[in-house]
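Schema walkthrough. Field components (list of strings):
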Amino acid sequence: MKKNIFEVACQQLDLVAKELKLEPEVHRLLRQPMREFRFTLPVRMDSGKVKIFQGFRVQYNDARGPTKGGIRFHPEETIDTVRALAAWMTWKCAVVDIPYGGAKGGVICNPKEMSKGELERLSRAYIDKIFLIIGPDKDIPAPDVYTNPQIMAWMMDEYSKLKGYNSPGVITGKPLSIGGSLGREEATARGALFTVREAAKHLKLDLSKATIAIQGYGNAGSFMAILTKKLFGSKIVAISDSRGGICGPKGLDPQAVLEHKKKSGSVIDFPGTKKISNKDILELKVDILCPCALENVITEENAKDIQAKIIAEIANGPTTPEADKILSQKKTFVIPDILCNSGGVVVSYFEWVQNNSGYYWKEKEVCERLDENITNAFATVFDVSIARKIDLRLAAYIIAVERVIKTMRMRGWI
Ligand code: GLU
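Field assembly_structure (string):
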């Protein structure tokens, strides 16, 4: 049975509540979303028939600023996955200290089976439904699993039409031509790369000799593979996607694997490689394991079999609290998702700042500011984990939750 990920998010918060001895009402307030919306989306399909989709937007907590978080298009989306992801966005924005609260959205659909026109109509219908509750100063969506810059462009266009003026700051992760930021597409991977670089320093691991396995080959996974090879010279020995995986102990060419996936729909059958399952890739003897797909993949069942020295959580919620305990006993260096994958939202913040000021930065500036932000956040989390003798996830949560509570107190909410 798959764990309910909102329960996982609550369990993680409960550990913080215990560690910080939170007052029960503060704990209760943080344990549930501030606001949530569910709606039906009638969309005309290419066949001429109307299909009804189910959509969600959860605004978890807006103490620190407008809520921020992506939109997922996924067949297994539920209100609970959106709740959990919205909670994680709240902690993520707080741990990297950007002035946002957390939110998330989703639609139950299978974009792989939809035409471009159907996807456009669904994207516009989604914005029509949440138009009143989003805005550059209210709630700012972005891409997530199976949504992309094109979808963000349609959504921003729909919002702007309804408003009556161009409003690029309502959504981030847009294409460059309509107000996107340089460096946004690879930002999640680049941020993760900086956290891996910092972790490697602590472990005295030479990244030019490190072996890496990548589970999930969407935006974050593919850029992670390409950038670690290019910038550090690390060896990518295995890659998987939803259909299966490949391994090549001598090292794979991540760019060529990406081209193959674009042509054939999957990384599998890439010439000169052996097949590996999505389960086995997690247990390979590598230096760095990067789960880059969905939640709940490292559990109490397989945690003891994981051999990687570092787990870079590029996906949201890949590890369950039970697995965390096992990994912590094994001294696996787990870079928690809310820190590891925060590069995406940090550059989303830069994009929003650029949209709001109408002045656009050079790529070098985006990357340098991202590096500074992530490196500082990593150091703060690491120091708290040493001082309190706790793992990095709990340390990151403590920093985030304390920041949210401090703002709520200032505002007089608690
Ligand atoms: N979907 C990404 C995440 O989970 C990015 C969110 C954003 O840029 O707002 O962090």
